[in-house]
Amino acid sequence: MSVIVLASSKGGVGKSTIALVLAHALAHAGGSVALIDADPNSPMDAWAKLSGGNLPERFTLNVGVSEDSIIEKIDEASERDSFVIVDLEGSANMAVSYAIGRADLVLVPLQGSQLDANEAAKVIRLIEREARAYRRKIPYAAILSRTSFIKPRTAKHIESEIRGAGIDILPVEMTERDAFKALFSFGGTLYDLTSEEVSSPDKACANAEALAQAVIDHLRGLKDA
To answer: How many CB atoms lie within 10 A of CB 88?
Structure first.
């Protein structure tokens, strides 16, 4: 069992998209996955309704999860599933605090901008405060999202600064792809999309699977450390 929490202090960084795509890829690979939607905007609930309730195999979805229920939902899922993925609100509140306290890994998404880097730094400070409060190490890593195929110099500079600060960055980025956006328009899974609906769905699946493997490798590295 691994609890993976997506945390960001701002919207628009691809947090919910990463959570959903990662869940699809892990379930497709044979893992049992619980996706917990603790974002009041309920993006996963909207996706599920578009999907007509036809969810992937080995996949459960919990929506409408609040600070009053988030610990219970995470603990219940942890006893049942191989992976628990928690999508949080883009702000600091008690639900965010509780989820971080239960995390085996917190992923902090950001795009290649200074504003996103500054917000990611706030989240990392929050994680470190929670680690002190819970008196345990809470691992975290940055994940670059919505990246372009040609990386601007600014993005390269920010990535270098993050590494220089001793912060892990997942080696796989989530690139800007039509298929990822389409999930919240068409519903279904990433593997249901066709070339008539989006461009290069096979490449999007490959990106998702590489990301899932990077997360698994990172979790294994933490256990071996």
So the answer is: 28
For residue 113 the two structure tokens come to 């901008």
Query: What would the two tokens of residue 201 be?
Result: 């769905």
Q: Which amino acid is at 88?
A: L
Residue 25's domain is classified under what CATH number?
A: 3.40.50.300
Q: How many C-beta atoms surround the C-beta of residue 105 within 10 A?
A: 18
Instruction: In whole angstroms, give the CA distance from residue 83 to residue 213.
Output: 13
Report the number of distinct structural domains present in the chain.
Answer: 1
- Confidence band (pLDDT; 50, 70, 90) for 222? confident
The encoded tokens of residue 125 equal 């400070």
Q: 45: which 2 tokens?
A: 């609930």
With a cut of 80, say whether residue 225 has pLDDT above it: no
Specify the pTM. Answer: 0.93
Among the listed residues 184, 212, 186, the one whose alpha carbon sits nearest the alpha carbon of residue 85: 212
Closest CA to 38 of 68, 17, 3, 60: 68
Task: Report the run of H or E that residue 218 belongs to, with start and end.
Answer: helix 201-224
Q: What is the Cα–Cα distance from 147 to 141, expressed in whole angstroms?
A: 17
Please state, as a whole number, how many other Cβ atoms lie within 10 Å of the Cβ of residue 161: 13
Q: How much is the pLDDT for 146?
A: 85
- What range defines the domain where residue 138 resides? 2-224
